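Design job #97: recover the sequence.
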């Protein structure tokens, strides 16, 4: 069986998606990155190897996400693609009529505008946590409840209170103030959901023409209270795809499948599942070649530099062994 693997390495979670030749999803993983992208990619490969039947042939691998270059070097990726393209391709595969994609992860959020099957505009937020999943996770932890309990209790709100959600610090202060005023926990929780939605629309979605069909994906889409808050704010139905949490990985797999086929089924550069046992080392240094002084990340194996990246130019990417 021919198969294509997509790996989406984010700051909070790492996702794997394996597609058959007909683009049917046959395996997927959703793991916590925990600040250890190399170890988690290796662990994911170990789990995949255990779960796959013996007759599966990995014909192509692609990486995406914030650590896509690092993951690409480790696994021997045939394609390294940005998150916007990967999410758009995956969504169009399942919901071809989509016009707006809302994607919210643990530490960043995106909006992708689709018109006639083509991504025409996008916006990203990688700075403010008040529009991401970590905002809700932190508040759930402070209230000593799981994020699942947070979602369920927020849905029971009858009279949600307005929380100042432009900043996580102000939101937490306002939330404590509302608790001290005697408001019900359920109403405060749903108020937080509404605050996240307002923050997202006022920042990531600012100036964007949000048209239905609207698709919501990413880990935060598990939270039904957020889905409800988006529907109320936008006055439109929100569609959450079946595998919304791994859509970036699915998109990467779809893209590498197309790339390999368009190149007459060239041999994949995938290094195999054995890379899960290798001991990699990461480090960084400041490039002094120009006044920009970029921080260059590098990946090594047994003292051999495998790759360097992170500069504003491709000086180090052209020749990993240069000095």
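Job complete. Output follows.
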């Amino acid at each position: 069986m021919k198969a294509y693997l997509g790996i989406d390495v984010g700051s909070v979670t790492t996702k794997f998606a394996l597609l058959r030749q007909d683009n049917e999803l046959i395996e997927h993983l959703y793991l916590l990155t925990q600040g250890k992208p190399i170890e988690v990619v290796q662990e994911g490969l170990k789990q995949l190897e255990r779960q796959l039947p013996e007759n599966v042939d990995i014909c192509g691998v692609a990486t995406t996400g914030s650590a896509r270059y690092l993951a690409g070097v480790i696994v021997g990726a045939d394609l390294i693609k940005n998150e916007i393209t990967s999410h758009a391709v995956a969504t169009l595969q399942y919901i071809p009529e989509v016009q707006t994609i809302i994607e919210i992860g643990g530490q960043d959020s995106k909006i992708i505008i689709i018109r006639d099957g083509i991504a025409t505009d996008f916006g990203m937020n990688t700075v403010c946590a008040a529009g991401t999943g970590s905002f809700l996770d932190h508040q759930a932890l402070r209230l000593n409840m799981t994020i699942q309990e947070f979602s369920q209790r927020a849905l029971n709100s009858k009279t949600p209170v307005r929380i100042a959600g432009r900043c996580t610090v102000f939101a937490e202060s306002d939330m404590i103030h509302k608790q001290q005023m005697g408001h019900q926990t359920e109403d405060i929780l749903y108020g937080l959901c509404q605050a996240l939605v307002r923050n997202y629309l006022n920042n990531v979605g600012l100036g964007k023409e949000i048209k239905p069909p609207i698709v919501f994906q990413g880990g935060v889409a598990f939270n039904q209270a957020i889905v409800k808050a988006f529907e109320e704010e936008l006055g439109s139905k929100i569609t959450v795809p079946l595998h919304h949490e791994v859509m970036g990985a699915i998109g990467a797999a779809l893209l590498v499948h197309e790339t390999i086929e368009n190149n007459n089924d060239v041999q994949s550069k995938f290094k195999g599942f054995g890379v899960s046992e290798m001991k990699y080392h990461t480090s960084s240094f400041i490039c002094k070649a120009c006044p920009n002084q970029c921080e260059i990340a590098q990946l090594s194996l047994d003292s051999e530099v495998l790759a360097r990246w992170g500069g504003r130019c491709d000086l180090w990417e052209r020749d990993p062994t240069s000095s």
